[in-house]
Each structure stands twice: as C-alpha cells, then as structure tokens.
Amino acid sequence: MEVREYESGKEGITRLILGGVHGNEGRVSKKILEKIAPNPSEGKVVIIPNLNISRRGYISTLDKNYTRSPTGRMHRSVLERYKPDVVVELHAFNSEGYKSLIDKDRMNKKGVPRMVPYREDLPMEDQVLHGGPPPWIKNKFKEHASYITLEVHEDYGKEAEKAFLFVLNAVISSKSVNEIRDRLKGEYQASMKKAGSLLQDYLSRSD
Description:
The protein is built from seven helices and seven strands. It is globular, with a radius of gyration of 16 Å. The longest helix has 16 residues, at 158-173. A seven-stranded mixed beta sheet has the order 1-3-2-4-7-6-5. The protein is of the alpha/beta class.
C-alpha cells in the first residue's frame, strides 16, 4: 500500500487523507491527490491514495461488518498507527447514487446524516458533498471538521475539482481543527452551518 508522509519537523497536528476506499474510487482520488504538494509548516500530513489494495467487493463504511472486511481492518489499522487529529476520507459517487447521498431521510435509512453540497447552485458533476465520520469511529471524532468525508462525482468538473482542492489545502495548511473549520466556514458558511447541525444531531444519538 502506497503511503506518503510529509513531515514538517515541528510539533503539530497529524492530518490523514485516505482515498480509494471502495472499488475503483482510487482512480478518481488519485487524479485529485496528484495536484497537491503538501508542505505543512507544523505537524505532518499522511496520504494513502488507495486504501482498498485488496480490490475485494464493495462494502460500505456504514455497514456494521465493514471493520471486519480487509479494507475495514486496514482502515482501522491506519487510524491506530497514525492517531490523526484530522481525517479526510475521499469517495466518488455516480449519478445513480447521488440522490441517496443527499436524501433527507438518510439518517433513518443509513444511520448517518445526509451529505451536504458545499455549493447547491452547481450541476451535480460540479458539486462536492461533505459529511462527518462513519458510525464505527464517530465517538473519536466529535469535533466538527476533525473527520471530513468528501464525495465527488466520478466524472467531476472544474468547479468540483476547485472546491476539492480548496478543502484539501485548507486541511494541509491549517494548524488546528478550529482553523480548518473557520476557513471552510469562511468559504462555505451556509453549507458548514447545515452540516454542523446535522453532525450534532448524529453525535447525540446512541448507537
């Protein structure tokens, strides 16, 4: 498994960026990750472009059996090894899956809140959706923006790429979770407010 580590040499937060969690998602995340060149001023950045090295069948991170799958075990192992302060989990959706991701009843259907577009005024191919941690790890990442799940269309456009890179660079260059959250709020205030409200409701629910 390819692991890229970027050390600043100074004490600071650890940011972990995970791509290729499912199936061929690595093809999409790899293209985006090739466009960033981390140079953190503090702490470190760890990038794993393709977590699903086993290329086994699809299993959702929301599935209760996910952490027993090869990819799920690797996911858990990576978190235990690096003990990140911030995680960005990259995914790719297709046109058929879009409605499920933004479904207002997703909490009841899937056990997690609906994902929120950073900008709802754009076509689906140019939207980047964001949400929080999967159920199995949510109790360790309760701070908003400490675990960012991102979804981009498999045939994403220029605006989506721009937003994706903005988020990744905000995570890489910020020195704390609060700074990341503030930078994202500064760019996407309404979207971050909605996502924060959904996250609080999600975290308040017992498993």
